[in-house]
Amino acid sequence: MNLEIRNSSFDLQIFGFSGIALNKDYAGTAFRLMDKMWQIVKGKQLNSKGLNIWVYEPGDKVFAGVELVSLPDVDAGLEQKNISIAKYAYYKHIGPYSLIKQAGHRMNNELKEKGFESTLPYIEIYGHMVNDESKLETELIMTLK
Questions:
Q1: Which CB contacts under 8 angstroms, 24+ apart, belong to 109-117?
Q2: Which residue, of 73, 80, 101, 123, has the fewest CB within 10 Å?
Q3: Domain limits, the chain
Q4: How far apart are CA 16 and CA 33, in angstroms?
Q5: Shortest CA distance to 104 belongs to which of 93, 116, 115, 113?
Q6: Domain 4-144: top CATH class
Q7: How far apart (Å, rounded) are the C-alpha atoms in residues 67 and 51?
Q8: What is the C-alpha to C-alpha distance for residues 136 and 140, in angstroms, rounded to an integer?
Q9: What is d(CA 127, CA 33) in angstroms, rounded to the nearest whole number?
Q10: In this structure, what DSSP letter does residue 45 have?
Q11: Could you report the per-residue pLDDT of 111-142, keeping only the tens digit for each?
Q12: CA 137 to CA 127: how far, in whole Å?
């Protein structure tokens, strides 16, 4: 695994929706929030970078959002989330989305072996969609203590 430890600041400003993953259904919750977010982004013709970003937080909280190219002039009805992480582990997963959870477990195991402790938030940034699922790219970011 090509895991990188980064000590540079990771800052992110995203817009979308948050919710609680009932029965720990993180993916189902994130998909519902993401669909709701895209309805508003497309409906209000907000200019975005087009990448889905999922943020996992304490208390089974999930945020599904997107970076906007410019801030909306009026309240677009989206929640704003600002994230700033000083130290984190980074891994680019290339392959099917169904293997992301497994990649996250491998990241955690490797971090523990190297003496690092991860904490929330944990972030997944989904690359642009391609037809060949073996070429899908997802950036995984784990906050380190």
A1: 110/1, 110/3, 111/3, 111/142, 111/144, 114/5, 116/5, 116/89, 116/144, 116/145, 117/144, 117/145
A2: 73
A3: 4-144
A4: 7
A5: 93
A6: alpha beta
A7: 7
A8: 13
A9: 18
A10: T
A11: 999 999 999 999 999 999 899 999 999 999 99
A12: 5
C-beta atoms surrounding 4 within 10 Å: 9
- Both tokens assigned to 75: 């309240």
Q: What is the DSSP string of 104-136?
A: HHHHHHHHHHTT--EEEEEEEEE----S-GGG-
CA atoms of 56 and 22, how far apart (whole Å): 13
For residue 90, give both structure tokens: 């980074």
Of 30, 68, 57, 60, nearest in space to 121 by CA: 57
Instruction: Say what the pTM is.
Output: 0.95
Calculate the dihedral angle through the C-alpha atoms of 130, 49, 76, 59, rounding to the nearest 10 degrees: 70
60 Cβ contact list (under 8 Å, min separation 6): 20, 21, 22, 24, 26
Q: How far is CA 14 from CA 87, 101, 112, in A?
A: 19, 22, 29
- The upper half-sphere exposure of residue 99, i.e. CA atoms within 13 Å in the direction of its Cβ, equals 13
Mean pLDDT of successive 10-residue segments in the chain (145 residues)? 94 97 96 97 94 97 96 85 97 96 96 97 95 96 97
